[in-house]
């Protein structure tokens, strides 16, 4: 039997008046169809785990509620509305599928977890075109053999991050600062966003 997470109780109670009955209904339906669900918060919104895997999630906004299955396309099919989740902008309980149908979706999501099915990764249909190295960056790299060696060894994506950072500078002084910083980091073999790695 699912144990109510007090954080979700608080989330529901602090939601807008129209949203509270919808959130309570969704919670009850998930708990009914999946008694082993574990409640938690993910991305600051109520979520339900099954066997440690994200099953579904709900969220309250100013004028609507959203609900979605983690493997939504495999559970319900393509999204049916402009809001996140599979049921569009939910403004009343009647906007949701009937209980029997909804429970079937929950059980289908559970079956996917049981089978070990993973969310398919989507990739851009077209790879991004390569960017030419700007002349000022090329000169700065040539002046630092270590920077040139590392830059040439970077993946196209890592090179692109530095190039975009430099060419997006709006002022000449900003561009100069970025060039100097880039060459310093590149000479150390650091990618553009090295500070955020292993965070």
From TrEMBL:
<dbReference type="Pfam" id="PF13376">
    <property type="entry name" value="OmdA"/>
</dbReference>
<dbReference type="InterPro" id="IPR014922">
    <property type="entry name" value="YdhG-like"/>
</dbReference>
<dbReference type="Pfam" id="PF08818">
    <property type="entry name" value="DUF1801"/>
</dbReference>
<protein>
    <submittedName>
        <fullName>YdeI/OmpD-associated family protein</fullName>
    </submittedName>
</protein>
<feature type="domain" description="YdhG-like">
    <location>
        <begin position="20"/>
        <end position="110"/>
    </location>
</feature>
């Amino acid at each position: 039997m699912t144990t109510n997470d007090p954080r979700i109780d608080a989330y529901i109670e602090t939601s807008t008046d129209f949203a509270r009955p919808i959130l309570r209904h969704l919670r009850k339906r998930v708990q009914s169809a999946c008694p082993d669900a574990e409640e938690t918060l993910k991305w600051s919104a109520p979520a339900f785990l099954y066997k440690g895997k994200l099953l579904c999630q709900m969220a309250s906004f100013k004028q609507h509620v959203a609900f979605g299955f983690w493997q939504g396309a495999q559970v319900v099919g393509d999204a049916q509305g402009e809001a996140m989740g599979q049921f569009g902008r939910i403004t009343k309980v009647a906007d949701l599928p009937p209980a029997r149908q909804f429970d079937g979706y929950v059980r289908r999501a559970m079956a996917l977890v049981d089978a070990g099915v993973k969310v398919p990764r989507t990739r851009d249909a077209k790879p991004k075109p390569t960017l030419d190295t700007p002349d000022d960056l090329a000169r700065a790299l040539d002046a630092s053999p270590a920077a040139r060696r590392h830059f040439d060894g970077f993946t196209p994506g890592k090179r692109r991050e530095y190039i975009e950072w430099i060419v997006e500078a709006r002022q000449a002084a900003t561009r100069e600062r970025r060039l100097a910083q880039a060459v310093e980091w590149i000479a150390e073999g650091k990618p553009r966003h090295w500070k955020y790695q292993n965070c």
